[in-house]
Amino acid sequence: MHPFTDQRARLRRILENALQGALYDSSEREADGRVVVLHAHRSGGGPVTVTFRGVGDSQATQEPVAGASLHLRGVEVHRLGLTSLLGLFFPQMRSPGSGYARVRIEAGDARLDIVCQDAEWWEDEAPRA
């Protein structure tokens, strides 16, 4: 599979870049739980935001502590089946676990497990003193 279209490799690259050297601030659910937003910052103060889209499930072993180091621990991708392809256009036909990625993140002692269709990230410059 081409590196650009390999969903697992693409998500891994996105999340490794986003989480490398990032410290946890907070997280929230939006859009009836279908979006999870993770807020963090770099050690220099620059804010980092990771958005998980098409969330089927998200769990944490405990609430992460603000300032905890974030580390990507795994990305597993489940291939799209016919039901999942139709689910992209008809949400009522979505089947959890098929056509989704399971992302595991360590935030200090907490473990985050997010089942999603995609993720994106961005960061702003550190505030100037």
Element layout with pairings:
Blueprint: H1 7-19, E1 22-30, E2 35-42, E3 47-53, E4 57-60, E5 70-77, H2 82-89, E6 101-107, E7 110-116, E8 118-123
Antiparallel strand pairs: 1-2, 2-3, 3-8, 4-7, 5-6, 6-7
List keywords for this structure.
alpha+beta; four-stranded antiparallel sheet; 8 strands; globular
Q: What this model shows, in words?
A:
- This protein has two helices and eight strands.
- It is of the alpha+beta class.
- It has a four-stranded antiparallel beta sheet with strand order 1-2-3-8, covered by helices on one side. The protein has a four-stranded antiparallel beta sheet with strand order 4-7-6-5, with helices on one face.
- Strand 6 and strand 7 form a beta hairpin.
- The longest helix is centred in the first third of the chain and has 13 residues, at 7-19.
- The radius of gyration is 15 Å and the shape is globular.
- It starts with 6 loop residues before the first helix and ends in a 6-residue tail after the last strand.
Portion of residues in beta strands equals 35-45%
Alpha-carbon distance between the termini?
46 Å
Overall mean pLDDT stands at 84
Helices and strands, in order, run as: HEEEEEHEEE
| Poorly predicted sequence stretches spanning 5 or more consecutive residues | none
C-alpha-based Rg, rounded: 15 Å
Major sheet strand order? 1-2-3-8
Q: Number of DSSP helices?
A: 2
Q: State the shape.
A: globular
Number of domains: 1
> Helical residue percent?
10-25%
Instruction: Report the major sheet.
Output: 4 strands, antiparallel
What does this entry show, briefly?
This protein is an alpha+beta fold and 129 residues long.
